[in-house]
Every structure is written in structure tokens, then in C-alpha cells.
TrEMBL record:
The keyword Lyase does not apply. Pfam families: BKACE. It comes from Xanthobacter dioxanivorans. The keyword Zinc applies. This is 3-keto-5-aminohexanoate cleavage protein. Its cofactor is Zn(2+). GO terms for molecular function: 3-keto-5-aminohexanoate cleavage activity; metal ion binding. Keywords: Metal-binding, Transferase, Zinc. InterPro entries: Aldolase_TIM (IPR013785), BKACE (IPR008567).
Length: 309
């Protein structure tokens, strides 16, 4: 039996880091597109995308801001496009759904529960900020609750179901697996499902190998062979957990959304640099990297010709 190929997802800009934290973090549409294309060329089969306000780098849920870069990416690469349904933690669920409804991508991310979600310690690391909104946004995250109630999850699933969108189910703690099992039992989601274990976010499960093994063991018990999984290690945990995940049969996610660094103390110069590094690690361990079309087959996606951009 041949070993499965490994899917690399790259999360290009996210909604946590701000422009002050790294000059490499893209927020202009051309930069988001360029870094996404370069990441795909480096080996990312899936591109996980957020939008930013091009004037000040703040988080945007405006479909028009996504439309500035989605067609460019589609024209230049065959990578799977995955659009966030998270985005700003102060936005309504309808606002968070608007970009996905406009773009009708192959995949969307979907957090499987409400949770504390904080990155406020970062506010103390910087003295001079590029834009006025940044420090308050980061500091105030200590009071943020990322909301995804069962009603919210149902609304996302039912709204996007007619467009045959599959989900990157983001699992920040073990209870999220049980939330997902309940949703599958009630018919909201169908196999194969794709789990993204998220370790190391303040408010979620810690970035420990024991936690990763426990999450996988729990998913095995709940979902059997009806799922695929990947791991996202926040910050310094990015590369070590990626290496561990692939040895356990999983896939990997990297990108400047999840970590601004490529090694201890060295900021990444681009998303592609992180993709290239994790690809080297995986190939050195004997793993082959999945193409976008191979990822589509593994995850049961509708195909890049069925999107709305």
C-alpha cells in the first residue's frame, strides 16, 4: 500500500498579526495575491485566505476586498482556495459569511465552537505602531470571545450547502470534535470531513505533542476512517508540530497567519519561505507533496471550475 501524499495548506495573512509585527505580512491586494501565488508554486495545495483593508491593513470582511485578489490567484495557480468564515471577532455571522457567499469557493474554514481567543500579550512587544488601530485591536483581544454557537454553525453550513462548499473544520480543543460529531449526526456535514487541529492559541488547547496525539485518537474514535486531518501549530510550534503530524498520518498548515517566523528569532520573508521549509522537512522524512488536484480528490472538493470568481 502506497503512503498518502501530504497536503500543505498556507494561511497567507489571517486576522491576528498586524502590519507593525512584520514587513512581510501582506495586506495590499497585490501583495496578498503575489504571496499566495508564490506559496502555491512552493508547494501549497490549499491557500487559506483573509482580506485586509488596503488603506491601513485592518481586517476586512468586505467581498469587494476579496475580489481584488481572488481572480488574480485563480488565473495564476490551480491551488484550492479556502476562504475564512472567521475574520473579525467583532463581526456578525452574516458579515462573516458575505465573502464566501460572493466567491463560492471550494473550501471555507469553520471554527467548531465558541471560545476565548486572545493574543493580547503581543501588545507589549512593540512601541511604535504603523497604524492607529493596531495596538488597541491587539490589547483588547483579552476581552474577545470568538462566537460560533450551534446556531451559527448551522447557519454557515446551510447557507453554503447549495454551493457545495467543503469545510476546514478548525478544532481548537477536544470539545470541538464532539460538537462536530453532533453536527454530523444531525446531517449538517458529510464525509469525508477535513479537520484542522489548531494548537497553541491562547484560549485553546496547548501546543504539546501529547495534545496532538489525544486529538487524533479522539477523532479516530468519533469519525473512524471518514476524516482527513491537518495540524496548525501557532508561533514557535509551527514546524515541530508539522513534522510530528506527518509522521502520524496527517497533513500540515503553515503561513504568516499562524507564525511570523521561519526559525527561532528570524522573521520569515514570505509565506513561500515557510512553505519551502516545511516541504523540505516533509520530503526529507520521505513524504511526497500533494498537488492541488490530488488534494481535491482526497477531500472530495467540487473543483476550481465551480467557484464564483
Amino acid at each position: 500500500m502506497s503512503r498518502q501524499k501530504t497536503i500543505i495548506t498556507c494561511a497567507i495573512t489571517g486576522a491576528i498579526h498586524t502590519p507593525t509585527m512584520s514587513d512581510a505580512l501582506p495586506y495590499l491586494p497585490d501583495d496578498i495575491a503575489g504571496q499566495a501565488i508564490d506559496a502555491a508554486r512552493a508547494g501549497a495545495a490549499i491557500l487559506h485566505l483573509h482580506a485586509r483593508n488596503p488603506h491601513d491593513g485592518s481586517i476586512s470582511m468586505e467581498p469587494a476586498d476579496f475580489a481584488r485578489f481572488l481572480p488574480v490567484i485563480k488565473q495564476a495557480t490551480s491551488a484550492v482556495v479556502n476562504i475564512s468564515t472567521g475574520g473579525s471577532m467583532t463581526s456578525t455571522i452574516s458579515d462573516r459569511l458575505a465573502p464566501a457567499m460572493a466567491a463560492r469557493p471550494e473550501m471555507c474554514s469553520l471554527n467548531m465552537g465558541s471560545m476565548n481567543f486572545s493574543f493580547h500579550p503581543l501588545a507589549e512587544r512593540y512601541e511604535n505602531w504603523k497604524f492607529d488601530w493596531e495596538k488597541a485591536y491587539v490589547a483588547n483581544s483579552k476581552s474577545y470571545i470568538f462566537r460560533n454557537t450551534f446556531a451559527d454553525i448551522e447557519e454557515v453550513a446551510q447557507t453554503l450547502a447549495p454551493h457545495d462548499v467543503k469545510f476546514e473544520h478548525e478544532i481548537y480543543d477536544v470539545g470541538h470534535l464532539y460538537n462536530l460529531k453532533f453536527c454530523m449526526d444531525t446531517g449538517l456535514f458529510k464525509a469525508p470531513i477535513f479537520l484542522q487541529f489548531v494548537l497553541g492559541i491562547l484560549g485553546g488547547i496547548g501546543a504539546d505533542l501529547d495534545n496532538l496525539v489525544f486529538l487524533k485518537r479522539t477523532a479516530d474514535r468519533l469519525f473512524g476512517d471518514a476524516y482527513r486531518w491537518s495540524v496548525l501549530g501557532a508561533g514557535a510550534a509551527q514546524m515541530p508540530l508539522a513534522a510530528a503530524a506527518v509522521q502520524l498520518g496527517g497533513h500540515v498548515r503553515v503561513g504568516l497567519e499562524d507564525s511570523l517566523y521561519v526559525s527561532r528569532g528570524r522573521l520569515a520573508v514570505s509565506n513561500a519561505e515557510q512553505v519551502a521549509k516545511v516541504r523540505r522537512i516533509l520530503e526529507d522524512l520521505g513524504h511526497d507533496i500533494a498537488t492541488p488536484d490530488e488534494a481535491r480528490t482526497m477531500l472530495g472538493l467540487k473543483g476550481g471550475d465551480q467557484v464564483g470568481f
